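Dear H.,

Thanks for agreeing to be a second pair of eyes. The structure we're designing against is below in token form, covering all 357 positions.
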């Protein structure tokens, strides 16, 4: 009897332990959270790979307590122009943010950075902390907390034309395709006719003579078959690429515990630093140039330093006008970035001078 009683006691103790473990596991599972993440980018874009990596890192660093469900290519049915309002209202937990998309609700965000801002790729890396700080400020006004993001590669920007063009003088009388109103205003100051044409319509516009040249990212020109409708290319300046920001609504952030928040912040920062290391690559640009030449493109000498200086001055004038139209925040963002760029340029000149001595 005593033996049976002891065995029964052990069984009951085992059952109790198993029940306790099951209850604990149930609580852990119940406390795990999945956040819905909107991205308007196609999954084939390189940025999407970093976004998927972000989701993977969040799950790993949180021990499975926090998961990110990424919906690529706007699969949630959300409009980019509405994303600030959507996040503010808590209708989606997270989103991939790009400041230039929100000219209706937050025009100042489009004034943070503009083409012609930099003349050397490395300048972009130095100005990024300033840009990130301003985006953090702008998005916070919409109840959005930023947790890192993706730094886009710095590509060469050139003029891709049917005829040889590698100076502002050559551009006179030409019609140029651009991608933003700021660039239309920039080229207008240079006496050059420019119009915004979406990327998907650029090939046909060149083929049919709507435009003579395309202002475009030379490094990826092959992917849109520009070599089929243009034969000449000349480098102008590096792309001032605004970073893609990971944003989480304050409502969603409030549902997370300290460990989950830490995992989110750490994962976002890791992706930011990884893409920072990949942003500037002379080898990538040289390889892309060789590929374009192999496709039959004649790469002309780059625009002269004098022409670049004139282009940059026009771009900054157009940028300032755009910032003023955006209001007090727009002017503040423009002044902050341009003053920082002035400091960077002065330091660069000093370093060159010291090196030459």
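And this is the sequence the design step returned. I haven't edited it by hand at all.
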């Amino acid at each position: 009897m005593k033996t049976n009683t002891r065995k029964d006691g052990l069984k009951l103790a085992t059952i109790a332990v198993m029940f306790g473990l099951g209850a604990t596991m149930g609580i852990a599972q119940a406390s795990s959270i999945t956040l819905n993440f909107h991205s308007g980018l196609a999954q084939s874009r390189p940025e999407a790979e970093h976004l998927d990596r972000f989701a993977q890192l969040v799950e790993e660093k949180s021990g499975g307590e926090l998961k990110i469900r990424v919906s690529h290519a706007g699969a949630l049915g959300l409009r980019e122009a509405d994303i600030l309002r959507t996040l503010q209202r808590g209708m989606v937990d997270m989103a991939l943010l790009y400041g230039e998309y929100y000219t209706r609700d937050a025009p100042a965000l489009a004034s943070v950075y503009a083409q012609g801002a930099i003349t050397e790729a490395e300048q972009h890396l130095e100005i990024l902390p300033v840009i990130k700080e301003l985006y953090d400020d702008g998005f916070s006004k919409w109840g959005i907390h930023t947790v890192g993001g993706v730094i886009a590669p710095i590509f060469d920007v050139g003029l891709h034309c049917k005829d040889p063009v590698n100076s502002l003088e050559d551009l006179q009388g030409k019609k140029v395709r651009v991608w933003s109103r700021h660039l239309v205003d920039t080229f207008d100051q240079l006496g050059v006719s420019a119009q915004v044409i979406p990327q998907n319509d650029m090939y046909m516009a060149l083929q049919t003579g709507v435009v003579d040249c395309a202002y475009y990212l030379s490094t990826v020109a092959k992917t849109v078959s520009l070599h089929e409708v243009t034969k000449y290319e000349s480098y102008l300046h590096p792309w001032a690429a605004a970073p893609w920001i990971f944003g989480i609504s304050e409502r969603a952030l409030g549902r997370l515990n300290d460990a989950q928040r830490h995992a989110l912040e750490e994962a976002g920062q890791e992706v930011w630093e990884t893409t920072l290391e990949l942003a500037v690559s002379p080898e990538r640009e040289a390889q892309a140039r060789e590929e374009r030449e192999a496709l039959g493109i004649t790469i002309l000498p780059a625009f002269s330093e004098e022409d670049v200086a004139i282009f940059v001055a026009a771009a900054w004038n157009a940028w300032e006008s755009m910032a003023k139209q955006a209001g007090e925040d727009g002017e503040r963002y423009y002044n902050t970035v341009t003053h920082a760029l002035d400091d960077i340029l002065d330091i660069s000149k000093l370093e060159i001078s010291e090196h030459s001595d």
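Two observations from my side: Residues 2-31 form the longest helix (30 residues). The CA atoms of residues 108 and 329 lie 6 Å apart.

Warmly,
E.
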